Amino acid sequence: MDYKTFISPFMLAIMVFFASSSTSEKPPYSTFARDATQAPAETSYDYIIISGGTSDCALAATLSQASKVLVLEIGDLPYGIPSVNTINGFLETLADLGSTSASQTFVSTDGVINHRARVLGGGSVLNAGFFTWASADFINKAGWDPQLVKESYEWVGKKVAFEPKVLAWQAAVKDGLLEAGVLPDNGFTYELRN
Question: Which of 28, 70, 65, 27 minimizes the C-alpha distance to 47?
Answer without folding.
Answer: 70
